[in-house]
Specification:
This protein has about 150 residues and is of the alpha/beta class. The chain has one domain: 3-Layer(aba) Sandwich (Rossmann fold). Helices cover about 45% and strands about 25% of the residues. The strands form two sheets. The chain has a five-stranded parallel β-sheet, sandwiched between helices. Strand 1, helix 1 and strand 2 form a beta-alpha-beta unit. Helix 3 packs across helix 5. It is globular.
Amino acid sequence: MYKRILVAVDGSQTSDRALDEAIKLAKEGHSQLLLLHVSEDVSQVWIGSEWMAATPPMLSPEIFEEIGRGILDHAAKKVQGVGLEFETRRVNDDGQRIGKVVAQQAQDWQAELIVIGTHGRRGLDHFLLGSVAEGVMRAAPMPVLLVRGA
């Protein structure tokens, strides 16, 4: 069994399902969990041929940090309720693809498994929004368990 499991959480129902699955695995294997939230840098967007400020003043980095802490607190309460050993970590994407950040955090923490939810987008939605789960699978050197959303 896996002794160190990283779970990527973003506050969505799909993320909650992935966390539930990771909790089951951790209980069976007496594993340690790392609950990871990656905050996106949405302060700039590419417009035409240059980067432009995109974040309204009310969406400061502090707001994103607060949201991330709230997401991690929610996940931590679920894990505390079953008595597993865990850590929480919130990081910024620093302009990198989130999948790559998740994979790097997993390597740094020496995770043996990554558990992440997938929304299963297809077609134009997938093309426009991309897939964090797909990015994790491409970048991670360890196994990745995808948990499909409802």
